[in-house]
Amino acid sequence: MKIGELAQLSGLNASRIRFYEAQGLIRQVERRANGYRHYPDQTLQTLKIILCAQQAGFSLEELKQLLPDSATGEFKQDELLAGLTRKVEQIEEMQLHLAQSKAQLLEVIDNIQSRPEGMGCEANAQRVLARFKP
Description:
Number of domains: 2
Radius of gyration: 25 Å
Low-confidence stretches: none
Number of strands: 2
Oligomer: single chain
């Protein structure tokens, strides 16, 4: 299929598809005599995998390791599973960090809101900040 059709089916613009091709994420692109690119039907599936993986936090470099082998067109199961497992571990670490950050922010909010009666905003700010000095 031509790039315009692929763009329409995938919802991506042609420049983004060409970018993925230049990055080595889309392979087996055939050039016709007129210079037009011709993409195999499986390219649409590859684009869907790329978009899904990016939404999950994979970098383009990580994606290159997870996509099917360029020679055989097959996934390398061990590498795929290892890469997916690593990403899950990274997400779990991020979740822990975010939960800690959320707890700290909620504590700050609580401290600000529990300003003693009659205390001015500036004095309250100093009181709250004093709790976070090393």
